[in-house]
Write a structure and sequence with these properties.
Helix content is 35%, strand content 23%. It contains 17 helices and 23 strands. It is globular, with a radius of gyration of 26 Å. The N terminus is likely disordered.
Length: 550
């Protein structure tokens, strides 16, 4: 069939994309979904209502009141052949998290229960899990999704969780239960033992939800606060590793007595607002599909396909708000293609510190002596100081002109610490780091950042507090600048310390100089700190949540 499609120039046949562009397209809006579809209008409306029902049903696993306001974008194509054009033949739906927006893709002929219903609900479960726990460990995300994919709503409106997952059971019967500690190092790109990983994640998740519900709830609360997976596990289960439950999980499976959790489905609003899309907006929807598609395709080729569809959309309907909103994919895809090319080049590069990283004095004593090499491009240096749950509060990568850098911060041993790494092949090269042994902190996190328009410099604003509190007057601030070659304190107080007091930080430019302004307590006088950074900065990056805060 692919050969026939590729031979359109000879036979005059239309490609799948051309056929899709000629279909009527609709935009559907419900309380929690914004759907773009070329499906039959009546089927699309039924599908939209079913999405709302199953979203609400799955959220009951967390609590009867769990119902976040976030709206998820959905691309619902007409049928499986259309889906396979963008997803590849091995997928029946997929969910993508792009930070500022999340996208759920599936075909309308699955929603009524034909063919790959479990796969559809598995991806819907990923979406629901993301609403409650934005960055779960891979085994938690997949284990929960495997658990939730068997969720069913009866004709009487009762939701049932916990039915056995037959595919996972077959793997466990034929191969057995793997070492559960291996789940921490599950690499999604490793397809060799993927069935065993999925089965083990499902089995452990089913056991925890049924036999250790309070511990499971505690772990999920920690994850929802932004803590990393290992820290959340330790906070809930103490020092017992995953493998410590291997025998209990195996015995639980052997008993074969599955406890089903049931709950009546709360009322779900069924209002669906339907609008016929313009031909230009149809091409905008195809640009979305090209951008988020799961089919194996070089990122540069995907970026070019997105650009082609957007060019048509903007030409045919330049005033459409939907077309204008979709145009962001052009910039995003070009950026991702650039990052992918850099990562490919990085894998081939030697693990050698770049020559332009300065041999400066460290900002404070510690393992982060500039030009020191690390075995990986990660936050392991903080965990080596203290493997506890507060060791790493925040990790972020940036792509500067000099090279890729990673910023990591936390409070290992209850002491604030941070460091900057420069990518060096598969490893990292220390740019600089800092740890204040004279103070205590419950967390140190990257509150906001500003990147120079030419990507030459980065201004980082860190926040810390000595103990958990809602009192913003306890916050302390530090402004760090880096160009990927050096790292330095961009602002200091009158005593020379980089630790600044105040609240409501903002940048101000006056007389050609950039300053950091911090408000005083109870509306008192603000203090301005001159910033040591010359580049013109772009807008502030997305403000990160304080660890431990919802």
């Amino acid at each position: 069939m692919l050969g026939v499609l590729l031979g359109v120039g000879l036979c005059g046949c239309a490609t799948v994309q051309q056929t899709m562009a000629s279909h009527p397209w609709y935009e559907l809006k419900t309380q929690h979904f914004r759907i773009l579809t070329d499906a039959d209008q009546k089927k699309a409306v039924r599908s939209a209502i079913e999405l709302e029902r199953y979203r609400r049903a799955m959220l009951l696993l967390w609590s009867a009141d769990a119902n976040p306001e976030e709206v998820t974008w959905v691309l619902m194509v007409r049928d499986l052949p259309e889906l396979f054009e963008y997803a590849g033949g091995s997928r029946a739906g997929f969910f993508r998290d792009f930070g500022a927006r999340t996208v759920f893709v599936f075909s309308a002929d699955q929603i009524s229960g034909v063919d790959s219903r479990d796969v559809l609900e598995h991806e819907l479960a990923h979406m629901v899990t993301h609403l409650v726990t934005p960055r779960p460990p891979h085994w938690v995300a997949e284990g929960l999704s495997k658990y939730l994919e068997t969720t069913r709503i009866s004709d009487e409106g009762e939701v049932a969780f916990g039915k056995p997952n037959r595919l996972s059971m077959d793997w466990l019967t034929n191969v057995g239960l793997m070492d559960l500690d291996r789940l921490w190092t599950w690499n999604p790109s490793d397809r060799g033992e993927i069935g065993q990983y999925y089965a083990a994640a499902w089995a452990l998740m089913h056991y925890l939800i049924t036999e250790r519900p309070q511990h499971f709830a505690a772990m999920m609360r920690e994850l929802s606060k932004g803590h990393d997976g290992r820290s959340a596990w330790r906070a809930a289960f103490g020092d017992t590793p995953l493998s410590g439950y291997w025998q209990a999980v195996r015995d639980y499976l052997a008993r074969g007595r599955w406890q089903l959790l049931t709950h009546p489905l709360p009322a779900v609003p069924e209002a669906v607002n339907v609008r016929r899309m313009s031909p230009g907006e149809a091409h905008a929807a195809l640009a979305w599909l090209e951008a988020v598609g799961a089919r194996e395709k070089p990122m540069a080729a995907r970026a070019a396909a997105v650009a082609r569809e957007l060019d048509l959309a903007e030409k045919m309907d330049p005033t459409s708000a939907l077309v204008k909103d979709t145009a962001v994919w052009r910039t995003l895809m070009n950026h991702v293609a650039e990052v992918e090319a850099r990562e490919v080049a990085t894998k081939k590069a030697p693990a050698v510190c770049p020559a332009d990283v300065a041999n400066d004095q460290p900002l404070s004593p510690g393992p982060w002596v500039p030009r020191t090499m690390t075995t990986g491009f990660d936050a392991e240096m903080l965990r080596q100081i203290d493997p506890g749950p507060r060791s790493v509060s925040y990790v972020q990568e940036f792509y500067l002109a000099a090279g890729d850098v990673q910023i990591a911060s936390g409070a290992p041993g209850g002491v604030p610490a941070l460091f900057v790494l420069r990518r060096a092949g598969p490893a990292g090269c220390v740019v600089n780091g800092w740890r204040d042994e004279t103070s205590q902190a419950s967390a140190l996190w990257l509150a906001s950042w500003w990147e120079a328009k030419d990507r030459s410099h980065l201004l980082l604003l860190f926040a810390s507090r000595s103990q958990p509190s809602d009192d913003d007057s306890q916050l302390r601030w530090m402004a760090l600048a880096t160009d990927g070659k050096r790292a330095w304190w961009a602002a200091r107080g009158a005593d020379g310390s980089p630790v600044l007091s105040g609240k409501e930080p903002r940048l101000r430019r006056a007389g050609g100089k950039l300053t950091l302004e911090l408000a005083g307590p109870a509306g008192g006088t603000s203090t301005s700190y001159p910033l040591e950074i010359a580049s013109e900065l772009g807008p502030a990056g997305k403000r990160a949540k304080e660890p431990g805060k919802p």
